[in-house]
Amino acid sequence: MKKYLKYGIMGILAAIVSFLFLKPEKKEVKSTVRSYEEIIQSGVLRAITEYNAFSFHAQEDTVSGFHYELIQAFAKSKNLEVDIIPEMSLEKRIQGVENGEYDILANNVLKTSNRKDSIQYTHPIFLSKEILVQRKPKDENDSSYIHSLLDLGSKTLHLVKNSSSIYRIQNVIFEIGDTIFIKEVEKYGTEQLIAMIANGEIDYTVCDESIAKAVIKNFPQIDIETAVSFTQFYSWGVKKNNTELLDTLNAWIDEFTQTPAFKELVKKYNNSKL
């Protein structure tokens, strides 16, 4: 049983290692929002993403991930180098873009009204949905197993702090007319919460389906069959009013998402709903 907790700890350590691996020198970063022209002049694009098996993952000396490869493709098309930093905390990722430490938030970003004053969203990159993560039922009479959203009444969900999942569950509360208890988690990311469910430390979380599918092979006792939302669009984010960078990204996304290279990238990371 301890191996699942170990997996969660290793995820945190891997994020630290990958951070050091990708930053060979400690550079002083001026926290001012850069225009696209200033990015081109510097020759370096600064991006921040989430550390997980879908977006960005480091194993030994190899870095992979859907968003890692996608931001590399964008940077290459503009003759830019890219510094991409993994960060588990959603709040820190958003703050990093807001204060200009990073140019792009390059992970699964769902449009929510609470971020509209600080973040602008690119055109949609792919479609996915939010799903409930829980343990598989012990038997057909297992009362802890959630068959539908109605079964969430009086249950406690551990959700990443400030994530779109929180706002979705708040809507579910109204939809089912019952109480759902939400515990916001700042210390851990999605993969760590999934590991904690597998280990029996917590019972439920909600996350993007693409992330759950990317790690499900490591946790055979986990169930991800219950949808919490309809299929919805996911994008990247930039600082509000950084119009030139946003327009450049949108033009590239519109073109690149129609190419065979993008289709191969989708296939590679098994995100079937793009």
Q: In summary, what is this structure?
A:
The chain has helices spanning 2-22, 36-42, 66-77, 90-98, 164-176, 190-198, 209-215, 243-256, 260-268; strands at 44-49, 57-59, 62-64, 81-86, 104-109, 119-121, 126-128, 130-135, 156-160, 181-185, 205-208, 222-227, 232-239. With 274 residues, the protein is an alpha/beta fold.
Mean pLDDT: 86
What is the ordering of alpha helices and beta strands? HHEEEHEHEEEEEHEHEHEEHH
How much helix, percentage-wise, in residues?
A: 25-40%
How many separate helices?
9
What CATH calls the topology of the largest domain is D-Maltodextrin-Binding Protein, domain 2
General description of the model:
Strands 1, 4, 5, 6, 7 and 13 form a 6-stranded mixed beta sheet that branches. This protein folds into 2 domains: 2-127 and 233-268, 3-Layer(aba) Sandwich (D-Maltodextrin-Binding Protein, domain 2), CATH 3.40.190; 130-227, D-Maltodextrin-Binding Protein, domain 2. Helix 1 packs antiparallel against helix 6. A hairpin with a 2-residue loop joins strand 2 and strand 3. The protein has helices spanning 2-22, 36-42, 66-77, 90-98, 164-176, 190-198, 209-215, 243-256, 260-268; strands at 44-49, 57-59, 62-64, 81-86, 104-109, 119-121, 126-128, 130-135, 156-160, 181-185, 205-208, 222-227, 232-239. The protein has 9 helices and 13 strands. It has 274 residues and is of the alpha/beta class.
